[in-house]
UniProtKB/TrEMBL annotation:
Keywords: Coiled coil, Endosome, Protein transport, Transport. Residues 158-230 are annotated as: Disordered. It comes from Gossypium tomentosum (Hawaiian cotton). GO terms for cellular component: ESCRT I complex. GO terms for molecular function: ubiquitin binding. Its main location: other. This is UEV domain-containing protein.
Amino acid sequence: MVPPSSTPPPNPQQFLSSVLSQRGPSALPYSEDTKWLIRQQLLSLISNYPSLEPKTATFTHNDGRSVNLLQAEGTIPMPFQGVTYNIPIIIWLMESYPRYAPAVYVNPTRDMIIKRPHPHVSPSGLVSIPYLHNWIYPSSNLVDLVLHLSSAFSRDPPLYSQRRPNPNPNPSPSPNPSINSSMTSTYGQHPPPPGPRVAATAAAAGYPPSPYGRVQHPQHSQARPTSTDDAAEVYKRNAMNKLVEMVHGDIIGMRKAREVEMEGMFSAQAVLRRREEEINKGLKEMQDEKEGLEQQLQVVLMNTDVLDSWIRDNEGKIKNLGKKNNNVAVDEAIHCVDVLSKQVLDSTAADLAIEDVVYSLDKAVQDGVVPFDQYLRNVRLLSREQFFHRATASKVKEAQMQAQVANMAARISHFVS
């Protein structure tokens, strides 16, 4: 069952723009790329048939699902035997509209009955005409649908009026009203207030249930007869609609193409950013390596300068040693350049000598040549002396390191300048 639909605002354009622009849970279940076309078709429909009003209402599917949809409710003109009647209908724009046809229901009032059997209308009010079966997107539209509905209903009216009770207590028997006579006599009359519609017969016959449970009072504003429409105007209107649809389709295609192109450009931009990061990282590593190589080059240049200075200072000594009958004294072959180097040499030699003595004492104790108590006494004295020599060598090396650092700083300033 469908509750009565809310009354739309007086301006259909504002109403459609409002409901079709909603987002979130309250949004209508139509595709975003078709909402513009839906709005245009509804505006064109109410422009040609003012008796139809766009509304929103809840539609219940056969599986129990309920969804809020757009509908056009009101009356459409039906010429019959030279008289134009108003047929109450409801056009539901389903979720798949406009790619698929809408659902059209005849909405009879309480004093009207659906003709059974009817070739295009089921007992539940569902309309089925060839135009709905042959719906082609985007050329098919609501205005042409109403034209085909009026044409089909004029050939075989889907409704006829019930005969009201005769107030005369002794009426003469009369036959059942025929469709044509009842149509001629009662379609032009003002119908009584609406009432609930009985759908038990339709349900028992297996037809789909009507989406409305309470019929609405039909509007009796006279629509323009379709028979008087100018063929040139109809052709012009159809041509304009098709042109608008073609332009709209082209715009959608161009937008999708641009979206694909933008996605490709965004992907290429992401790849370029990753490559930029890799290049910057590699450049930084190369700069760090260059700085390290420059520092190593400075150290090599300083060491080369030191070696050149040493060779120049000791070249004459080597020549003098070679003139003494090739008899080179080991003690005179190496000369310390300063006092600190002489101290390091003496301390290192004494340390190594004590190592040799301790090794010899170990062998003597193992062979039983030296008593164990004497071994311990000598090892203690030698260890104390060795400690002093090592401490002296350590202090001298520290002083040499400080002097070397000062010398390197002076050489660096020399190379930089």
